Amino acid sequence: MKSKILNKKNIRSALLIVAGILLGWLLFHSPGQKNAKHSAENASADTAQHKQIWTCAMHPQIRMDHPGKCPICGMDLIPLVKSNTTIEENAIQMSESAMKLAEVQTTLVGRGIASKEVRLYGKIQPDERLLVSQSAHVPGRIEQLLVNFTGENVSKGQLIARIYSPELITAQKELLESKTLEDKYPAVLEAAREKLRLWKLSDQQIAGIEKSGTVKSIFDIYATRSGIVADRKVSAGDYVSQGQVLFDLADLSQLWAVFDVYEADLPWISMGANVEFTTQAVPGKTFNGRISFIDPVVDPSTRITKIRVELPNTGMQFKPEMFLNGIIHSGQKSTGEQLIVPKSAVLWTGTRSVVYVRIPGAAQPAFKMREVILGNSMHDRYEVVDGLKSGEEVVTNGTFSVDAAAQLEGKPSMMNPEGETANIMPGMDMSGGDHPKSGSVNEQGNSNASAFKVNMDFIMQLNPVYDQYIVLKNALVQSDVNKTRDASKNMGIALSKVNSTLLSGHAHQQWMEILNDMNKQLSTLGNSGNIQDQRLAFSGLSNDLYHAVKSFGLMKKTVYYQFCPMFNKTGAYWLSESKEIRNPYYGDAMLSCGETKETMKF
Length: 602
Known about the structure:
Layout: H1 2-28, H2 33-49, E1 54-55, E2 78-79, E3 92-93, H3 96-101, E4 105-108, E5 110-112, E6 115-126, E7 131-135, E8 140-145, E9 153-154, E10 159-164, H4 166-180, H5 186-198, H6 203-212, E11 218-222, E12 227-232, E13 239-240, E14 245-250, E15 254-262, E16 274-278, E17 287-294, E18 304-312, E19 323-331, E20 338-342, E21 347-348, E22 353-358, E23 366-377, E24 381-386, E25 393-397, H7 399-408, H8 456-477, H9 481-496, H10 505-527, H11 531-552, E26 558-564, E27 572-576, E28 595-601
Antiparallel strand pairs: 1-2, 3-23, 4-25, 5-20, 6-15, 6-19, 7-14, 8-10, 8-13, 9-12, 10-11, 12-14, 15-18, 16-17, 16-19, 17-18, 20-24, 21-22, 22-23, 23-24, 26-27, 26-28
Helix pairs in contact: 4-5, 8-9, 8-11, 9-10, 10-11
């Protein structure tokens, strides 16, 4: 009996234990626990698969899987942010930190009066209307020359030479014989006198011959005009014929200031416009004059025309061949206001002009490339004919950084209007200098193609310009101011020999814009005595030559397009004949600073 009672107790205890376990399971077990564990495992896998990538704001082609320093410029890498927000298909999005590091700035497009300061270079020249020649009115031999050198001042009526003339001796004899027959043949006497007058003998000289009754063998020659001797044509002892020029005389009481105007600046030039100019011969003083003449013909080789300012020479302070620096403050010859955009906003490829427009209302800064049609070029601005509207926001600083980001994401960019997927590999990508732009040499070594079909003679004429540019670049590498001056002048000479008439249509227009800018930069390089100013001008010259090379090409050249991220805050480019970095913006101080951005083979 007792055994049965114990069994019942054991059974009851076992049932209580089982019931407790079941109740605990019901109270504490969560059906989502397994799913949560599974989700955590998936998230861990996803995190491993989509690991954070770090990049450089200045060199977005750099890709690393951990933070650190940029191997090119040494800047701190920033995380590459993948936005979940939806933007336009061809837009490029940048984080605020990336914009700050790349110094990306934007400006609102507005309307204004199109104006420009046209800078001119010229010379003082004699007024051609006041140039005269002093000639011999009688044939003979010059016995004595009383005006002996160029630059001597001659006054009207001044004795300038003594001459022996057999013809004049004969004419005197005829006069004296006619004098004896004056009563019977007065007309013969008057004819003899008139013959001497035609030889520019004065009535006093003729009367003196008649009175003396003797024949003179040597006669005085007097100046018939006043002026400065510009050219002496004869010497004592020379035999001259009637009408032969003895001296060229220039009246310098009024002169011409003649300035060169490039073809691209002609829309800003008009008759009567005021020209301010200075000369080193009169330091600290500015002169003014009105344009009195614009040459109707453009020089076919230099693409330059001449304008003229008439200049009173009070006090003889101006002298022919003095150099002048002039400026014209010109307004656009149209009514109303034009749409204006800063030049720094425009990326110019030789065939297209593009800007990056900020997309309004985006959660993060987003930009989209847009092609524009430009009008007149001003000092630091362009007139926009089509492609933008007033109030839109365009990138004006850091434009190349935005364009580089667009290239890397395969979005439409300056050299890739259709867009192209960038070749980004996981981990670190050290091929920064070898990522080609459109038209550059690719990994297979395909040759670069120019934007225009160009006459082969024109391309051959560009080669010496590029060669002289390399000499100029090497002079800046050495930080030699004088060598830089000489090299820039030699490059200017090579540039002047390029025949612009070999181009036509849009190609000719693009070349003339490049030529105009290159000549201005070369003028600064050739006249400056400051190495920093020379390097700033070289930066602009390099951009111009790059556009020329991309647009028109070279003959059998390999050109390396290289970049220094440190110069002038936003960086600067240059062209090189060697892949080795030899920085012209710092010389020995930072000789190897920079990278090759593009390789072009022609």
